[in-house]
Design a protein that fits this description.
The chain is mainly beta. It is 14% helix and 38% strand. The chain folds into 2 domains: 104 residues, Beta Barrel (Thrombin, subunit H); 70 residues, Trypsin-like serine proteases (Thrombin, subunit H), CATH 2.40.10.10. The strands form 2 sheets. It has a 7-stranded antiparallel sheet with strand order 5-4-1-2-3-7-6, with no helix packed on it. Strands 9-10-11-14-13-12 form a 6-stranded antiparallel beta barrel. The N and C termini lie far apart (59 Å). About 7% of the residues have low confidence.
Length: 212
């Protein structure tokens, strides 16, 4: 009996200890990891160009963005973080308050992707990051917190700077996961610039549409 006890103790001592600690990124490391999976989305309209952001969620070229930046345009050009341009096809578009679109591009190599998180786990006060192309300044990183969660309207409110051109980009948690798709800013005085109140569509709502 004593011999068996010593054997059990020996096994316990040599067994490796596995850590399940969740990794949280600082801003520079998060940007380095995620930015290659962020694209700009330009839709050519009859009277100009509608510009926004997208995030690659599958290495085969599947991209999430906002439906409103596509409007009634025909030619949709996706520009990668390395400057390469590709023509995109609309796979699915969901309008109204959902404001989500899925695009597809064909690229001759495997793409960097960003992971979908779980918006059910977010809390007011959580740190968040946004990466987008505000006013055409591609690959812009901003940081803030979750300011409010409007469950009835399916909106995440944040003070991370979101401006025209940021629509369709990811709202990220500190683990580098998408918790929302940036959608709009609050404009009480018709000022198109950020005033610290931006909104994102919760990613769990997006995942429901992807499953459909």
């Amino acid at each position: 009996m004593l011999k068996k006890l010593f054997m059990i103790l020996a096994i316990m001592i040599v067994m490796p200890v596995f850590s399940f600690e969740i990794h949280h990124y600082n801003a520079p490391d998060l940007y380095k990891k995620i930015n290659p999976a962020i694209v700009s989305v330009d839709t050519h309209l009859h009277d100009g160009v509608s510009c926004g952001t997208g995030c690659i969620i599958n290495s085969d070229g599947t991209i999430l963005t906002s439906a409103h930046i596509l409007e009634d345009g025909t030619d949709i050009i996706v520009t990668m973080s390395n400057g390469e341009d590709y023509k995109a096809e609309i796979i699915k578009k969901i309008g109204e308050n959902k404001d989500i679109a899925v695009l597809k591009i064909k690229v001759p190599y495997e793409l960097k992707t960003v992971k979908l998180g779980d918006s059910a786990k977010i809390k007011v006060g959580d740190s968040v990051f946004a990466i987008g192309n505000p006013f055409g300044f591609n690959g812009t990183l901003t940081k803030g917190i979750i300011s409010r969660i409007d469950y009835s309207a399916n909106r995440i409110q944040t003070d991370a700077a979101i401006n025209p051109g940021s629509s369709g980009g990811p709202l990220l948690n500190t683990q580098g996961e998408i918790i929302g798709i940036n959608q709009a800013i609050y404009n009480p005085d018709n000022n198109i610039s950020n005033i610290g109140i931006g909104f994102a569509t919760p990613v769990n709502l997006v995942k429901e549409y992807l499953q459909e």
